[in-house]
Amino acid sequence: MLVKWITCAVLDRVGFDDGQRGWSALREVPGFLGQCGGWSLNEPDRAHVLGFWAGEASYRAFMAGAHDALAAGQTGSYSDIAVRLLTRRLDIGRPVNRALPDGAAALRLAHCHVHSGRTTHFRAVQAGVWNPGMAATPGMSGGVFAQGGETEFLVVSLWSSEEAHESYRTERFPELRRRAGAAADLAEITGDLVAIEPRWTVTPA
Prior knowledge:
CATH topology: Alpha-Beta Plaits
Low-confidence stretches: none
CATH class: Alpha Beta
Radius of gyration: 17 Å
CATH architecture: 2-Layer Sandwich
Strand content: 35-45%
Mean pLDDT: 96
Shape: globular
Number of strands: 8
Number of domains: 1
Largest sheet: 8 strands, antiparallel, barrel
């Protein structure tokens, strides 16, 4: 599965929101597996959108075809856009695209850059420590662990509420981080907590 992560600095929230709803046409595109997104809770004018594709071939076909017409609906509503493509390595509990219809309210993004030589350990503890710990946490709906470049990773998790994620962050996260030895692996980690906009969620037909 291909994961597309889009971040926009938004100038016109109403216009951007209207345009984002137009992406519902994706449900008919071959290879499309789902899309969700919403507004950053840390930077109110920053939007995050995640798209999930069966593979690079179907994604490239979409980009060469229907993409530009859909994107035109948001022209002028944002000042900056960053797009990253990553490959799914592991699911966290349920696959994130299958969890989308359940109406999660919050989306957590953890963008990790790992020290050279530590990627094997980082992936191993993601599978053995982080994934079981997160999947067993009340309110965690599903997620995906994806890899970009050799040392770039994205951890995506869906939560029933902001409160459920906060409970995880304060009660379970510190012990999981200690067990995973994260400090030795990570060169840099940035992230965001996103309030999911239900009208931006698209599932395949």
